[in-house]
Amino acid sequence: MKLAAVDIGSNAIRLQITNVTHYQDKTTFKKLEYLRFPLRLGMDVFHVQKISDKNRRKFVKLMKAFKLLIDLYEVDDYIVCATSAMRESANGKEIADEVKQDIGLKIQIIDGNREAELINLALWSYIDEKPYLHIDVGGGSTELNIYKNKEKIASKSFKIGSVRALDDNIPLSVWKSMNKFIGENITSKDKITCIGTGGNINKIFEMSNPAKNKRYISPDKIKEIQQYLESFSYEDRINKLNLNPDRADVIIPASKIYLAAMTAASSKKMIVPDVGLKDGLMNVLYERNKIKKVVK
């Protein structure tokens, strides 16, 4: 069984195609294709509240390319989800309708709570009875989820994202709201461990030179990497540190968002599991097709 998931974010758009096989009661997921295209829809939306004509044309072309790959791989089922940029864009639904009519690709524009739910589906293997704060920083929003005794006790989406933060245009009231949410649901006795998801924390973790099989990072180490990045110009981050252009600018504001949430929770450790929305989407696809298979 072949499954495809498309994650339309504010900073980039991702396609993953996975082959699922069953052998001797064992289910195996093998990645066949992964593409990340740096189309920054959020820069348009967070400044002028709509996707520009130029990026609209590029977006439609990209959806055509993704649809071709989905067809070429003879995918059995797929799901396409768009997050904060398209849901806040005045012409987001109009563009989604155009893609459905002209290309035959159905785009679901999801809210922050649904986005958090989907990401959470990929996290359960990292969560036990201890208290956790899951921090997912995207280009346009940050989703926070709090777990205790393997149950989610609170969840909220905030308009704080790495692309949105580039021009320091996030109101102080939004930051205060995030801190208040954390303070109301976490006590000093909880000893919270954070779980960080998103492309930027994965890159920060990679740059920390972790020990083999280690998936933890401390706030001090995140701060150290942040300061190291700030010592380079944007051009040098690209040319000397070999960061992608669409990563080289947003990685610093993203690090500040993770640190702000960790500080509010008084957390000393973050797990970085390298999963995200696309993995949650794969989980949804697998479950609904497994059910279809049983029904047949």
Automatic annotation (TrEMBL):
GO MF assignments: pyrophosphatase activity
Domain Ppx/GppA phosphatase N-terminal: 29-282
Family matches, as InterPro entries: ATPase_NBD, GppA/Ppx_hydrolase, Ppx_GppA_N
Gene3D superfamilies in the cross-refs: 3.30.420.40, Exopolyphosphatase. Domain 2 (3.30.420.150)
Protein name: Exopolyphosphatase / guanosine-5'-triphosphate,3'-diphosphate pyrophosphatase
Protein's organism: Belliella buryatensis
